[in-house]
User: What shape does this take?
Amino acid sequence: MKRVSLTQYLVEEQRLNNSIPAELRLLIEVVARACKTISHAVGKGALGEVLGTASTENIQGEVQKKLDILSNEILLEANEWGGHLAAMASEEMESIHPIPNRYPMGEYMLLFDPLDGSSNIDVNVSIGTIFSVLKAPDGMATPTEKDFMQAGNKQVAAGYAVYGPQTVLVLTTGNGVNCFTLDREMGSWVLTQRNMQIPPDTKEYAINASNARHWQPPVTRYVNEMQAGVTGPRGKDFNMRWIASMVADVHRILNRGGIFMYPADAREPDKPGKLRLMYEANPMSFIVEQAGGASTDGRQRMLDIQPTKLHQRVPVFLGSKNEVELVTRYHQE
Ligand code: AHG
Ligand code: MN
Ligand code: MN
Assistant: This one.
């Protein structure tokens, strides 16, 4: 079998479809290289002294894990000097990170959740990295947070890496979704799945059911109806999965369908949901839509939400199209 590397895929995509400008290609390669470094650190585990908690909190008041901080640093360092970026923003940093003056400034802006699924780090369950790429607004001189306030439909690329039994990289530049597997011996990303498609129907859902008492009525109704099984209104049995790493749950859905939900709930009314629009919901929604799925915040298309804050949180419903449409309809009724 002839192997296609990430580099070859990107070069051919640029040549054939003109969908990937040279600077964006460099950006993706640099992010992919950083993910390789993170994957290597994750794989060392206790031997690399990367497990456990740091003594710091991030902007969301979450205790940071050592690997949250390390992954953030790896991504920052890898992306600073290439000349392809104007600024970066991360779940783990309070404010944006403009490219230092000593390096040339590029036209893209990179956002990331450096380590998704932090609660799974120390128990050897799949975790990952999520990233999103925006274009700097025309005429931008010094990047500010305001320049990042672009709806998800403005993303020019998005992707995630899963550090699991295999390390994989899933990528979209707006022309379908492809998956690359890390060849650990060669240190290269090899194209292993072309044009991933999420089936429109499913019998599998993912939600943290321990929060059920805090849900809003449309979510309770939707989940109850699935749990009623073959004799209930849905007329079929459903299965449930919850990995507690969004990357791993979304990767399962890209491979065999399903719906992933992290609804807003009554615990913290001023924080609608847990997941972050800019680092988690938007990149995943771009990927899911590119694979034929759907994504909403329960009421509207995720990618059309106009952000107002860098660390904004949103309710998330994404995956198999018909299921996302149903739960969204329940919110509208
Ligand atoms: P992060 O580790 O980046 O903070 O994100 C964790 C997120 C997401 O990956 C996962 O789906 C969800 O939090 C799990 O939340 P619960 O612990 O409430 O199940
Ligand atoms: Mn996350
Ligand atoms: Mn994270």
Summary: The pocket of manganese (II) ion (ligand 3) is lined by residues 68, 91, 113, 115-116, 118 (CB under 6 Å). Residues 204-332 form a domain with the D-Maltodextrin-Binding Protein; domain 2 fold (CATH 3.40.190.80). The chain has two domains: 6-193, 204-332.
